[in-house]
Amino acid sequence: MNRSALTGARGHLIDQLLYFDEQLPTFLDTYYPEPNKARSTMYTKIEEYVEVLERMLVLNDDELGRQLSEVAVIGSSINVCYEDDEQSVECYTIVFPTEVDLEQNRISLFSPIGSQLLMRTNGESFLLEAPAANYRIRVLETKL
């Protein structure tokens, strides 16, 4: 990643931190209005995500560039393969709910797939729990 791209990426991450710092209660009230397990789980996930971003932002440019090509953050495109069918590769982009475009595989961080891809790393394999079925997948590539 060149210096200009890294400056833009840092700004992108800072904007996310500011958003969650200022808007988290409103954000959760909008998408999880009831105080239930789903809201609590997402609150914990966002807190963990904020910690990941804070750790990234103190890195030098080279390390930040490496992290952004290895760890899925909001705005990342993630190529995954379904391990039961190595030929089946999908690319998803994790976005805020207002930016969802299913035709472009732009999925919400709140969606079943998006929430499970957030913070995953290249090479990581895990059981993706989807509404229709569970799939063993592996993260092939992540890029912001």
Care to describe what's here?
With 144 residues, this protein is α+β, with helices and mostly antiparallel strands. 44% of the residues lie in helices and 24% in strands. It contains four helices and five strands; from the N terminus they run H-H-H-E-E-E-H-E-E. The chain has helices at 3-31, 37-57, 61-68, 112-117, and strands spanning 77-82, 85-95, 106-108, 125-129, 134-143. It has a five-stranded mixed beta sheet with strand order 3-2-1-5-4. Helix 1 packs antiparallel against helix 2. It starts with a helix and ends with a strand.
Topology:
Blueprint: H1 3-31, H2 37-57, H3 61-68, E1 77-82, E2 85-95, E3 106-108, H4 112-117, E4 125-129, E5 134-143
Helix pairs in contact: 1-2
Helical percent range?
A: 40-55%
Number of strands: 5
How large is the share of residues in beta strands?
15-25%
Mean pLDDT: 92
Radius of gyration: 15 Å
Please give the order of strands in the largest beta sheet. 3-2-1-5-4
Uncertain spans, ≥5 residues at pLDDT below 50? none
Given the structure, what is the number of helices? 4
Distance between the termini: 10 Å
Summarize, please.
The chain has four helices and five strands.
What are its keywords?
144 residues; alpha+beta; five-stranded mixed beta sheet; 44% helix
